[in-house]
Model the fold of this input.
Amino acid sequence: MAVATLPAPEPRVSRKGLLVAMALVAVVGVIALVFVLMRRDSGSGNQGAAHVVAPVAATAPAAFAGSASCRECHAEEFAKWQGSHHGLAEREIDPKVDLAAFSPERSFTHGSQTTTVRQREKQFEVLTPGLSEDGKLTPTAIVPTRVIGEAPLRQFLVPMAGGRLQTLEASYDPHKNEWFNVYGNEDRKPGEWGHWTGRGMNWNAMCAACHNTDVRKNYDVAADTYNTTVAERTVSCESCHGPMKPHVDEATKRRNDGATKGGWAKDDKGGTLLPAGKTSAIRTPRATLSTCGSCHARRGELTGAFIPGDEFTDHYWLTVPDQTDLFYPDGQIREEDYEYTSFLSSKMHSAGVRCVDCHDPHAGKPVLQGNALCMKCHNGSFPNSVVIDPAKHTFHQPQSTGAQCVSCHMPQTVYMQRHSRHDHGFTLPDPLLTKQLQIPNACNRCHTDKDADWSITHVDQWYGAKMERPTRARARIIAAARRNERGAQAGLMSILSQEKIPLWRASAATLLGNYLNDPAVPAALTAAAADKEALLRDAAARAMTPLGELQAAPNYAPPIEAARAMLARMINDPSRGVRIRAAWALRGVIEQDAPATGELLAFLNHNADQPAGALQMGVWHVSRNQLNEGVGWFEKSVKWDPNSAPLRDSYAVGLAMQGNLIGALDQLKHAVRIDPRDAELWYKLGLSYNETNQPAMTISALEKAVQVAPTHSRALYNLGLAYSAAGDRAKAIDTLNRAQIADPQNPNIPFALSTIYLAAGDRASARAAAIRTLQLAPGHREAMQVLRQLGE
Done:
């Protein structure tokens, strides 16, 4: 009996399939993208429906008294503060102080560009490349008006249209009396997000909040302008203590009435705080930490309205070690992460150590120098502290660099070309992790002429089995999860349930978002979402976001339904950050007039001045079935940052959803030129070529995807189909077999093989592939059809 053969699967993904493949990545990844794109997150527009956005109420300027009012009663603290980095965080140009930077005239090169600094009559100028009216790069004379920072570098601010202040790349090192570019030899040009004229160097959004007191950005979405206000220039007394006008008024009244200080409240160390019956805004350790963290953290800004005494998670989303490479898997800082996250990840913080235990809060300097600072606790005086004998512990010569506690446990990384910053994770040097996972270790940071094996030999000799510590196991789990290794979710769930440090539990919860197809994961995240720590609840909501994005839930497994129900409850969480995260996860279905929706929209509006914020606003509109508005925001994000591959990727998604396949293809072409090492972009470009009926280009792009990522299963699968359609069965079979190895649980791959084998007359192989399909997907109709045609 003749057997009719089934046609080989067409190497086409339907338009709907293309959109699902592309949009899923854009929507699921948008939160992580925000943290990658922006140093300190600062997206918005027409909300589509009549809904009043209620931002967090601003503190009345009249509530601030100004630092000068503190001097008379707090002379010692004022003197320390006045010359500190906080006291000098931002100031007006001062001819006496800044003359040395601009005179004599001098020039320096950065990349292919040259910048000149000089004095012209009574003003200072920076002659730096800008765009002329004809679009050519030409020297432009800029007159800075303000300075941010003191040492080891000062940056200069330039006023521009729309209420903007822009931060120059050209920076001054007062110690060396040198000018340099904070980007080194990068050749950033006008029109780029990170150029000094771009939004990445905009003071209103990126610098002001942490260099001044009570900043209100006041961005006008419609006009794209700023009316930014500050209570006081620089990081003043009230930046940390909160608005103190009532305190100053009462102090003045008491002094005028001849009252003594006897009626004033005392803190736990006997220091004078506030009038009796009042409470200091930073009296509790938690409030103090939140106040420090409000600036010393890599974070997303939710409100722009933090006041000392507020909870950190009510105003910020904290960046934690996640799928990105912002941190190393052991928690060491990699990018410009500041101190807060790494400190929260440490045993020091877990044991109750506070910032002010080590740093004088007014001078901003360590309270003791050298090892004396560490030994004031590690001599047994601090509860549960490990007692350390430095002579026996370091295995280095006394007074040498290697004998300093900070050299091994707080290694430094240089940012902005000149600024060396200590890692506050108090990590343990582990050269074995350097060899296995490319995580740097303090030993080889000093001994640059040695390799990791040399260091491994020594630490094993000194510490032996102690090196196989829980922190090593945790780093390996985090690293495996960042590589999306199968089975890593088990380790993450063990961290989630057993780790004592909340920051690491939050990191594990965040990474579990990559394993939602394991039924145990949504259940574990649902449990974490009820934790007492807001940081962990936020991480759980972030991980469950893809589940909330689904518009309907027919036949969902119980763990997924429970997770969705938990997200619905989390829009009423005590923490604003958690409420906004849950509202974002449910953005397609949340009621327009829900309180959490108002908070979400206020967050979106606050961040609408940056490309990542525009991306978020676009996603919001698309989720609310306002496609044209959403695509408009995607277009704006690309305009504001044309060199971002992820933004062009998202814009391509929107264009494809509008049916503009040629426009989508053009954006993806740009994206792969920007980031040719991103296999996912090549994969999507292949799908886009396929949608526009360009089979040869489809194959070329998919080949590039698997060249960059040899185990990219979806690219391999589609490439196999494309080879089949082109008549190259041998390549099709070989590629689909590679896809099957990369993704052995996908029934579509063996089914595709079964049809190709059937068309080639290889009945045995067709039968085996069809049976494999049914093993993976019982009831697979097309596979059963293949077997029927084979006479089964």
User: Anything to note?
Assistant: Confidence is low (pLDDT under 50) at residues 1-54, 265-279.
